[in-house]
Structures are given as structure tokens and as C-alpha cells.
Amino acid sequence: MPEQRNPSEIAREALKRLAERHLAPTPANYQACYNEIANLPNVMPFPEPPLRQLAAGLCPRGEVQIAQLSRLDAAISGRSWQGVQDALQAYIAAAAPSQGATQLPHEVSTALLQLFEAVFPAFGRDDLHFCAAVDELLAALRVTPCEFSRLEVVLRNLAGLAPYAVAEQAEIREALLKLLHLIIENIGELSLDDAWFKGQIDGLLAAVEPPLTLRHLDEMERRLRDVMDKQSRARARSVEAQEEMRKMLSAFIERLSTMNESSSAFQGKIEASARQIEMVSRLEDLAPLLKDVVSATQTMAEETASSREQLRALQDRVLATEAELVQLHRELDSASSLARHDPLTDTLNRKGLDEALEREISAVRRRNTPLSLCLLDIDNFKRLNDRLGHEAGDNALIHLANVARACMRPTDTLARYGGEEFIILMPDTTLEQGVEAMVRLQRELTKAFFLSGRDKVLITFSAGVAQLVNEERGSDAIRRADQAMYLAKRAGKNRVFGA
Ligand SMILES: Nc1nc2c(ncn2[C@@H]2O[C@H](COP(=O)(O)OP(=O)(O)OP(=O)(O)O)[C@@H](O)[C@H]2O)c(=O)[nH]1
């Protein structure tokens, strides 16, 4: 039977053993020596505090690691070594894929799934093989865990089909554009006699040239609507006018035939009376015959007068309809003012600007990007008009619009706001960038002289630029730009001020 020793002796002995073995005097080492001397099983105390410290130092990435960390917490609380070991192994396995890993981390497969689900609808569902391969890929990504080997197979399959699907989409786009060209040209052919139509059609054809942006397409749709609107109004009115003319013509013909009938009846009556007169021998027999002739002549004269009257009324109506048609043509020709384009400079007019501004504002609010707008006013334009004539003034406006168009971004919009005032909408542009863009336009204008006959004329402008602020209405931003432009004029003209 082993000798029973008291705890204070064991404690002293344990201290001596620590010193003999040159062990660090930690509680764990002391406990181990004590147990050894006392013949107790050497149970390691559960190191909860350091394990908690370790757990607190871990930075989990992704749902799997977060789950394993709470498993580790639970294992520490339950003082389970096995639990701690399992949780740590799983935590490490869920880290970024190392060489030899066979599964895609969950967060990566989820992100890929979201990306592909957003991108693939753009390819349409025309190509059945491609669609099947896409569905396979999405299904593989939806499986948790997502195996690399499976993913590789479906990706290879999809990569083989993708170039054909992309090429097909490009071909479809090109074919649609060709079709659109054809339709527009055809509309143009039908309306070649009208200069307004011709201008709109040319604009439309220019708009369908690549690069094709949503703005281009939107612009094209609006122009096409103008053309269609004008055509349908013209067609409706000319059908009506034709109908009126047709009715008038048939009334005219009817009238002529009645006149003809009554004059043949008159002729017959006169001839009969003449024969009877030849046969008459007594004067008293002649009197009633003459009376008949006089009354037939009177009736004829009355009918002729009324026919003349009716024909004159008909003629007046024809003339009125003709005048109405001329007026209609005039109205239709000025329809461009109702449309969205300024006929002189081919920039947007006020109506077009309002629509474009609304469109841009809702786009910047959706995308949370900046929008700047510039109001520019040509300097001393009255003097230019007075010196060189109104036509030269018009050409100067066209020149400015052309130079502005050439140095603006394709996404910018140019509109004629008033006589010699223009507005430029600049999406994705801050106030600073907007001011820079306008200074650039000023520089371009000094290089691109306006030629009036043989005179080189330098056109300058003053401008105010405003960046749309939160919830601000377009009209308020224009007002701010206008005030800044006014200050630029006051400061000596040929300047750009930010609002
Ligand atoms: N040729 C031409 N002139 C126009 C047109 N629209 C407006 N104008 C003229 O532009 C001139 C503008 O004159 P003002 O408003 O005094 O401005 P300004 O002479 O440019 O003077 P500042 O703005 O102070 O530099 C007027 O004479 C208008 O008749 C147009 O379509 N064609």
C-alpha cells in the first residue's frame, strides 16, 4: 500500500522537483509535479482563457467560418477538447481555397451565381444549347458545397458555346440596325418633297450610326415619333380634303347635267313652238304660242341663273378648301417648332430640352452620379447682327452649335434655350469638370473662326455652370446657371462662372 503523504509535504516536494528539472514555475508545471508525487492522474486543466483569447483573435470570412467560430465558442464553454479541435479544423478548411482544395468557398459561389444570373439574360434565350449550358452552370453554383470538378466541367462546356452566342447577339444587333436604316430610308423616300421631313430623316439616319447608346436610341425614338405624328396629321387632313373635293365635283357634274337637261328641254320646246308658228295662219292663234315661248325662255333663264349661282357657290367652296390645304401645309411646316428640334441649329428646342433634362435627372438619381448643366449666351450678338446682317447671325448660331457638338462628349446634350442662348447637359460631370469643359469650348471657338463671307469673326460667349444638387428641380438648376452667366457678363464677358 503506497505511503500516504500529507499535502504540505507533497507541495514542498513538488517545488523541489520543479527546481531539479529546471521547469518554468507555471501553475500547469507545478500541478503536473504535484500530481506525479501524489500519484494522482495528470489531468491537464482546460485552458479556457487562452482559448477564448485565441477565438477572439480570429477574423472569420464568410458564413462558414462564422458558423465554425460559434461552434468553437460552444466547445470552449462545454470544455470539449474534441469540439475545439473539430471547430478549428473546419474553420481552417473554410479559409480561401488552398492548393488541393476541392470546393469553392460558399461566399465565392454565391457571388458568382449573382453575377451570372444578372449577366446571362442579356444573351436572350434564342440559342437553346447555350441556355442549357447556362442553366447547368447556375445549378452547379447553387449546390452547396460547390465542387471544383463539377464547376470545371460545366464552365468548359459554356466557354465552348459562349463565342457563338456572343457572335449571334452581335449579328442580331447589326441586322436590326440594317432593318431600322431601311425603314427610315423608306419613310424618307415617301416624304422627299418636304424639307422638314428630309432634315428629320437625315438626323434619324445619323442617329442610328454606331456607337449606339441608349441616349441615341431615345433621341431617335423621339424624332421618329415627330415624323410619324406629322405624317399622320397630314394624311388625315388630305384624305378629308380629297373627300370634300370629290363631293363638290359630283355636285358640279350633277348640276351640269341638269343644266344640260333643262336646256335640251328648252330647245325641244322652242323647236316645237317654231313648227307650230310656221303652221299658224291667224294672228290670234299665234299669241298663246308666243306666251309659251316666253314662259319657256323665262324658266330657262331662271334655271340658268340658279345654276350659275350654285356653280359659283361650289367654286367658292373649292377655293376655300384649296386655301385651307395651303394653310395646313404652312402649319405642318412650322410643326418643327412643336417637335423637339430647333430647325436652325438642329439642337434640341425647349420642349426637347425639358424631356432630356427630365430623363437625365431621373438617371442621375438612379445611379447617384453628378449632373452639371451650362447656360451659355453669345457675347455682343446684337452687334454682330447689326454689323453683318441677320443671316450672318443665323450662321453664327449654327457655327457655335457645330463647334459645341464637336467638342462635347457623346453623352452630353445641346439645346437652344432662347435666341442666342444654349444649354448643355453634362451627365457624370461635377461642377469643376463642367466649368473646365466650357473653358475648353471657349478655346475651341477661338481656333475655329466663324467665316462670314471673307470676314473671320471671333465668337465668344459667357457661361454659368451649375451642378444639380439633391432633390433640386431642373428649372432651379437652370436658374442658378443663368445667374452665374449673368455675373460672367457683368465681370466682362467671355468668362465661365460656376454657380
Ligand atoms: N440672327 C439672329 N439673331 C437673333 C436670333 N435670336 C435672337 N437674335 C438676336 O440676338 C440679339 C441679342 O441681343 P442682346 O440680348 O442685347 O444680347 P447681346 O447683344 O448678345 O449682348 P450681351 O448678351 O450683353 O453680350 C438680339 O438682337 C436678337 O434679335 C436668331 O435666331 N438669329
TrEMBL record:
Annotated transmembrane regions: none
PROSITE patterns listed in its UniProt record: GGDEF
InterPro entries assigned to the protein according to its UniProt record, in alphabetical order: Diguanylate_Cyclase (IPR050469), GGDEF_dom (IPR000160), Nucleotide_cyclase (IPR029787), Rev_trsase/Diguanyl_cyclase (IPR043128)
SMART domains: GGDEF
Residue span(s) of domain GGDEF: 369-499
EC number(s) recorded for this UniProt protein: 2.7.7.65
A molecular function (GO) term: diguanylate cyclase activity
Reaction catalyzed: 2 GTP = 3',3'-c-di-GMP + 2 diphosphate
PANTHER family: DIGUANYLATE CYCLASE DGCM-RELATED, REGULATORY COMPONENTS OF SENSORY TRANSDUCTION SYSTEM
Protein name as catalogued: diguanylate cyclase
Organism, as annotated: Azonexus hydrophilus
Lineage: Bacteria, Pseudomonadati, Pseudomonadota, Betaproteobacteria, Rhodocyclales
